[in-house]
Amino acid sequence: MRFGIFSDVHANLEALQTVLKALRAEGVSHFVCCGDAVGYGPDPRACIQVLRELRCPIVAGNHEYGLVGRTPLDQFNRAARETILWTRRQLNADERLFLEELPLSERLEPLFVVHATPSNPVAWEYMFTVREADEEMRGVSSAVCVVGHTHYPFVVEKAPHQPSRLVQDPVFRIDPASRYVINAGSTGQPRDGDPRACCLLLDLNKGEGRFLRLEYDIRSVQQKIAAAGLPEFLAVRLASGR
Ligand code: ZN
Known about the structure:
Layout: E1 2-6, H1 13-25, E2 30-33, H2 44-54, H3 62-67, H4 78-90, H5 93-100, E3 105-108, E4 111-114, H6 130-137, E5 144-147, E6 154-158, E7 165-167, E8 171-173, E9 179-183, E10 197-203, E11 208-214, H7 218-227, H8 232-240
Parallel strand pairs: 1-2, 4-5, 5-9
Antiparallel strand pairs: 1-10, 3-4, 6-7, 6-9, 8-11, 10-11
Helix pairs in contact: 7-8
Bound molecules: zinc ion (ZN).
């Protein structure tokens, strides 16, 4: 099975289309989205439409929870809050219902999919360190836990009788005896210093994972952010990848 995994699209249609095209070209048979389909970006409706047509498992992110009123907006920074309010005004009832019905996690053996952390998905905690990933892994029975939320791609491997370690290579081996926490990075708003759209290809037959980084038309997204009257900072950060 070839999984195409992406996260944190944040209503960036150009990045989403670029990622899906590349994953299809890689022969992906199963798509998975780790949440935050909307928020920050100017194309929530079009992104929801693309995701619905994809009919793939999608978990809810904090931006979906904020949008439907389950996570209080005072837990978001100002730019996030503003775009959540703006996004609410764009969506029709059906689109909103689609977001409301997203589950917090999905078990797709051998994958466990959640936006933030498996131990407490609605706390929206950030998992940045090997130690945090190691602790989270203990509560998950699936071999591979895939997450998003930090907008920072990373892989932590726990091999039998070994301490958990950070895997640094963009192409890495998936050992059937090991367990993993993998952050798919962000498609629509990378923050690791590389502005290219990020997604993850997991080939479980081959036992290989690979991050793809893809150029897309950032200019047009920035223009749409400006035209929608969304905070300028959101356009600026797309170009810097921070
Ligand atoms: Zn996000």
